[in-house]
């Protein structure tokens, strides 16, 4: 399967997601968090650092659940960029 290249907005959302998860994890270890969520520590590390900009929904749902984040909070945080893009001149031209 060929995967389409990520857009700058995809990359920015991935970075926002990673930052949100790092903040929510706080002092909790990455290993503990990953194991509790049923993902590998490497997967969590890649998501937190933005190297996986578009992780699978079940993965994010599991991590968010372990960290006590609602999916609404996650959605709101990562889509702030989308609202900013829609207000920009480039976003206006795309309408």
Question: What's a concise summary of this model?
Answer:
Helix content is 69%, strand content 0%. The longest helix has 18 residues, at 8-25.
Secondary structure layout:
Elements: H1 8-25, H2 30-37, H3 41-48, H4 57-67, H5 71-78, H6 80-87, H7 89-93
Please characterize this protein's 3D structure:
With 95 residues, the protein is mainly alpha-helical. It has one domain (8-83): 434 Repressor (Amino-terminal Domain) (Orthogonal Bundle). It contains 7 helices and no strands. The chain has helices at residues 8-25, 30-37, 41-48, 57-67, 71-78, 80-87, 89-93. Helix 2 (30-37) crosses helix 3 and helix 2 packs across helix 4 (57-67). The longest helix has 18 residues, at 8-25. It starts with 7 loop residues before the first helix and ends with a helix.
């Amino acid at each position: 399967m060929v995967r389409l290249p990520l857009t700058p907005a995809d990359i920015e959302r991935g970075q926002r997601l990673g930052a949100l998860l790092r903040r929510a994890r706080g002092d909790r270890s990455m290993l503990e968090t990953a194991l509790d969520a049923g993902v590998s520590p490497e997967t969590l590390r890649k998501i937190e650092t933005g190297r996986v900009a578009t992780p699978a929904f079940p993965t994010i749902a599991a991590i968010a659940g372990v960290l006590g984040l609602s999916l609404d909070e996650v959605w709101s945080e990562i889509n702030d960029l989308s609202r900013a893009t829609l207000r920009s001149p480039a976003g206006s031209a795309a309408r």
